[in-house]
Design a protein that fits this description.
Blueprint: H1 13-19, E1 38-40, E2 49-53, H2 55-67, E3 71-75, E4 78-82, E5 85-86, E6 91-95, E7 99-103, E8 112-113, E9 124-125, E10 129-132, E11 135-140, E12 144-146, E13 155-156, H3 162-170, E14 174-175, E15 181-183, H4 186-200, H5 206-210, E16 221-224, E17 227-232, E18 235-237, E19 244-247, E20 250-255, E21 258-260, E22 271-274, E23 277-282, E24 285-287, E25 293-296, E26 310-316, E27 319-320, E28 325-329, E29 337-348, E30 352-357, E31 365-387, E32 410-431, E33 438-450, E34 452-471, E35 477-491, E36 498-503, E37 508-516, E38 522-526, E39 535-537, H6 539-542
Parallel strand pairs: 1-3, 2-4, 3-6, 4-7, 5-10, 6-11, 7-12, 10-16, 11-17, 12-18, 16-19, 17-20, 18-21, 19-22, 20-23, 21-24, 22-25, 23-26, 24-27, 25-28, 26-29, 27-29, 28-30, 29-31, 30-31, 31-32, 32-33, 32-34, 33-34, 34-35, 35-36, 35-37, 36-38, 37-39
Antiparallel strand pairs: 8-9, 13-15, 14-15
Amino acid sequence: MLILFATASGQTDEIAQYLRGLPCDAPVIAVPVFPDRVVTIVEHGAIGDGETMNTEAFARAIDRCAEDGGGTVLVPRGLWLTGPIRLRSNINLHVAEGAVVLFSKRFEDHPIIAGFDGTSRRYRCVPSVSAYREENVAITGRGMFDGQGDAWRPVKKEKMTASEWKRLVSSGGAVNTEGKIWYPSRGAMEGEELLKTLDARKGSTKEEFAKAREFLRPVLVQFVECRNILIDGPSFVNSPSFHVQPVQSENILIRNVTVRTEWWAQNGDGIDLSSCRDVLVYRSVVDAGDDALCIKPGTIARSQKPGPACERIVIADCKVFHGHGGFVIGSESYGGARNIAVRNCTFQGTDVGLRFKSARGRGGVIERIFVEGVSMTGIAREAILFDMFYDASPGVASGGGTERGERVPEFRDFTFRDIFCSGAARAISIRGLEEMPVKNLLFENVVLQAERGMICTDGEGIVMKHVQVFPSTGPMVALERVRGMEVDGGGVRAAVDTLLTVEGGVSGGIRLRGIDPGTRKGVVVLGSGVSPEAVVVDERLRK
């Protein structure tokens, strides 16, 4: 059994170390402490043979422990088949080494609800492990939670080899009329269209939504409107949807966890912090099918104080393998985020390394974001990406925004320090909005090796100090409608002919100095309509 020791201030020395010397406001983290009481699920009838359903045994053990004042509910070594588990205040669900909590593949074992408070117009499957408006809740131990998500998730043909696709289709399920998406059942395939019909019509019943149950994939772990959360040690694998998702919650400590699913797992996010404050995530490993370490600034709860939805969050010493992004903010950003620090993380083989995404209609203010000490290898797309047209084309409103000015994303005041990448399709891509450029970005001591260099459209106040971009082809930096940029120190490979290209008549205030130009045909190339005074270069670059 794990015993937690806390200092008088509620913080262990280890936690204090992670919160020391931050470049932003530190989160307030207190480790929840539980009564010295242990209740085992075996005492309440659980059988760990992988065949017996233990949903009621889990519920009885948790209820008994909570009614006695709280403590630890112990899941011993074994294979424990179950339906959803609901945690209560002052409960530490401890999953011992060798214990596997296996969630049922039978759809009928997963009830649907109209939101946790019963007032939502749209029904959903109960999360596999959940808590709602509870305090002092924990999941600890070295055991495993297996969501058996392959029974729920669709699979896109483009993500599989021909032999894998053939094997999958021959296993059963259903394929859509275009032949591009496989579903584990016909009910799952038809559920998407059914949901659109039910959502568009008022007064849809629970019975009607139940017909789409096979499409309503549950989250593996979801805590909603909770305080004082600890997740320490377990592995969370093969979720039907997101793996670990605190929502509208505060004072959260996640450490020493492993998240793993297939790289093609649809919506298989790793750790999603949705409208959460005062969070510390460290020493964890994520191998995800979608965004890996993700911050989602959406709607705050009525019980939360006004302010940014996501605030005072630290992510440190984490490793990410597959994932659409190693560290991500978005795509919804309308709730706002600030004072976020990411430190000493490693990404290998992700689609994008550092990914910041939003769109008109989904945007808010994202500011004071600090990323330092990140090493990346084998990045399929961009090492660093800002995309304010997520799921849309430039000039097209997205995410429900039909007019300029409606929930426009404002991303500003980002610092990137000691960032290294070996192998990416593009080093940096910044795509802001004409009416709201991405603003005030500092890149310092950054080395990026990529097929193509940096591209920036609609940016303002960008500073690059001792940045080396090593593209295999094209210019080191290509700018369009960029106002105010300083490049000081750094270098490029001699094989690259052009250091900088500038387009857009509004571009200006661009200064280059202290750069090793190598041997190239042209240092700066100005497009049509760009003023000759838009770029100021030092004498060394003029030679």
